[in-house]
């Protein structure tokens, strides 16, 4: 299996606009080589009989039946509001009008 060279790491660093010292290049080259080797091992796993999944466990939606229930009146909804105007919550203006 071909190994990652120091020059390839330097090229990748330039593409990613990452400045690496010579010591960092020497340190990262074997690490990247090992990472690529491990990814290669994972891809060799015999998984032909395993269906692709998005989650490890099956997921089901828990639904409840729709029920009509009484809702709040405008007065009840606005009862705890610090300020109300024309049956609406009054909030501070955040945008100026032109």
Automatic annotation (TrEMBL):
SUPFAM superfamilies: Glu-tRNAGln amidotransferase C subunit. It is an enzyme of class 6 (ligase). GO terms for biological process: glutaminyl-tRNAGln biosynthesis via transamidation; regulation of translational fidelity; translation. It catalyses: L-glutamyl-tRNA(Gln) + L-glutamine + ATP + H2O = L-glutaminyl-tRNA(Gln) + L-glutamate + ADP + phosphate + H(+); L-aspartyl-tRNA(Asn) + L-glutamine + ATP + H2O = L-asparaginyl-tRNA(Asn) + L-glutamate + ADP + phosphate + 2 H(+). InterPro entries: Asp/Glu-ADT_sf_sub_c (IPR036113), GatC (IPR003837). Pfam families: GatC. Gene3D superfamilies: Glu-tRNAGln amidotransferase C subunit, N-terminal domain (1.10.20.60). Heterotrimer of A, B and C subunits. Allows the formation of correctly charged Asn-tRNA(Asn) or Gln-tRNA(Gln) through the transamidation of misacylated Asp-tRNA(Asn) or Glu-tRNA(Gln) in organisms which lack either or both of asparaginyl-tRNA or glutaminyl-tRNA synthetases. The reaction takes place in the presence of glutamine and ATP through an activated phospho-Asp-tRNA(Asn) or phospho-Glu-tRNA(Gln). Keywords: ATP-binding, Ligase, Nucleotide-binding, Protein biosynthesis, Transferase. Belongs to the GatC family. GO terms for molecular function: asparaginyl-tRNA synthase (glutamine-hydrolyzing) activity; ATP binding; glutaminyl-tRNA synthase (glutamine-hydrolyzing) activity; transferase activity. This is Aspartyl/glutamyl-tRNA(Asn/Gln) amidotransferase subunit C. It comes from the Bacteria. Its EC number is 6.3.5.-. NCBIfam families: gatC.
């Amino acid at each position: 299996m071909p190994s990652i060279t120091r020059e390839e790491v330097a090229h990748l660093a330039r593409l990613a606009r990452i400045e690496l010292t010579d010591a960092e290049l020497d340190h990262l080259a074997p690490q990247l080589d090992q990472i690529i080797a491990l990814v290669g091992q994972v891809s060799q796993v015999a998984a032909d009989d395993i269906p692709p999944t998005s989650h490890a466990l099956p997921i089901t939606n828990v639904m409840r039946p729709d029920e009509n229930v009484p809702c709040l009146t405008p007065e009840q909804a606005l009862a705890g509001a610090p300020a109300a105007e024309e049956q609406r919550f009054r909030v501070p203006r955040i945008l100026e009008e032109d």
